[in-house]
Amino acid sequence: MKQTNHYQTRDVICYGKKQNQELLRFLWSQGYHFTDGQPIKPDNLRYTGSITDEEDAIIKTACYAVDATLKMVAFHDSMSLLNLYQSGRGLIGLDEYFSRIKENEKQRGVET
Description:
By secondary structure, this protein is an alpha/beta fold. Helices cover 34% and strands 26% of the residues.
């Protein structure tokens, strides 16, 4: 997907406590905040769903819309996820999110 400006939102899914905390710590360190004005706290997790793994264990998930321009984060609920899929967009995993950030920084000449 080719971006014409730097305004971009990434839709990210995190699995389990560890990934959610990792994403929230990163966003907090970059100065992001939630759309409701609340500060990001890595220990204040709000899971928005769950999946079952191969061993039938339930893993809690959270889906985020992360806007790099506005430095804002919102949780996806079931309706926003439905709209996301209907528009042909999907979620990316945490590793892919970090990979895209590094790629964008490399293109802009920013050291990581």
